[in-house]
Amino acid sequence: MFLVLLLVVVVAVVSAVGLTGHGASVLAARRARGPGAGPVLHALAAFAGAAAVAAYAWGLLHVTGAVMESGGGAGSAPAPPCRMPGHEERAARVIDQSVSFLPLGFVCETTDGGEYTSDDVPGYVNPATAVLALTAVASAVGAGYATELRTRAAARGGRP
């Protein structure tokens, strides 16, 4: 599991860097061509997507740390991430743990069939990732719509 998490972190970081570079190249091309709504929204989509992926990677690093901490050995039952202050009796019933990728978290499973998420992933990671991802999607849709309107106007012989 640890290697899979690290691989996903590396892929996320590379994707974030690639999206940032794409956004920068879109803005540079816009500067060369002149103003237009499509390229700005296109760049915003790339930057918001990069930020969403970076926030997700940040959360994955926290989950990876929790997985490493729960690796086994003396004092590893229940897993240390499941032992949250003020919830000692709940931690005594933990029988297994897993990783949740959406929403991101380290999940502790109890004897009664219940589960709870440890507090290893900062509380802002999942909401920030969701908001940034939705911003990226909305910007990409807006950029496509603006491009379509300009293309139709140009086909009619009007000005974009």
How would you explain this protein's 3D organization?
The chain has 160 residues and is mainly α. The chain is built from four helices and three strands. Helix content is 62%, strand content 11%. A three-stranded antiparallel beta sheet has the order 1-2-3. α1 packs antiparallel against α2 (37-69) and α2 (37-69) packs antiparallel against α4 (125-155). It is elongated and about 75 Å long.
Offer a concise description of the structure.
This protein is mostly helical. Helix content is 62%, strand content 11%.
Task: Give the low-confidence spans.
Answer: none
Shape descriptor reads elongated
Largest sheet: 3 strands, antiparallel
Overall pLDDT confidence: 82
Assess the beta-strand content as a share of residues.
5-15%
Radius of gyration: 22 Å
Terminal-residue CA separation? 52 Å
Number of strands: 3
- How many individual helices? 4
Along the chain, the helix and strand elements come as: HHHEEEH
Q: Strands across the major sheet, in which order?
A: 1-2-3
Helix/strand structural class:
mainly alpha
Helix content: 55-70%
